[in-house]
Amino acid sequence: GIQVEQSPPDLILQEGANSTLRCNFSDSVNNLQWFHQNPWGQLINLFYIPSGTKQNGRLSATTVATERYSLLYISSSQTTDSGVYFCAVSGAGSYQLTFGKGTKLSVIP
Amino acid sequence: NAGVTQTPKFQVLKTGQSMTLQCAQDMNHNSMYWYRQDPGMGLRLIYYSASEGTTDKGEVPNGYNVSRLNKREFSLRLESAAPSQTSVYFCASSELDYGYTFGSGTRLTVV
Question: Which residues lie closer than 8 Å to B39 by C-beta, 6 or more apart?
Answer without folding.
Answer: none
